[in-house]
Amino acid sequence: MTDVLDALHRTLEQRKSASADSSYVASLHAKGLNKILEKVAEEAAETLLAAKDYQGGKEERASLIGEVADLWFHTMVMLSHLELSHEDVMKVLEARFGLSGLVEKAGRDQRKSPSTP
Average pLDDT for consecutive 10-residue bins of the chain (117 residues)? Predict the structure, then answer.
């Protein structure tokens, strides 16, 4: 799977400098971060609705998987726009392996809370 994400990352980086008339990705970059974030939010909402409606049927499965793919794609466009990549996310996920989810979340919550003297 990483090969697919690597190839997509390379393509997204190439398309950043393409003409907005010739590339959907370039047109998103030209419209700026707010437009890209709108697309991420839209795809997230569509993913949630597809998951809510999922009953295990073939068409529902295809719909949900397609929406997740759209969400991942637009999230990668966002990361690219911010000069980040899927590799940054993968490093965080890799570091979390072997940690209890509850322990990891507690550590994040503790880092977010203001410290009291």
Answer: 89 94 96 98 98 94 97 98 95 84 69 62
What pTM did the predictor assign?
0.82
CA angle 12, 18, 24 (to 5 degrees): 65
Q: Residue count of the chain, please give it.
A: 117
Choose which CATH entry (1.10.287.1080, 1.20.1730.10, 2.40.30.170, 3.40.50.720) describes domain 33-112.
1.10.287.1080
pLDDT confidence of residue 35: 98
Q: Where are the domains of the chain?
A: 33-112
How many distinct helices (H) and strands (E) make up the chain?
6, 0
| DSSP string across 68-112 | HHHHHHHHHHHHHHTT--HHHHHHHHHHHTTS-HHHHHHHHHHHH
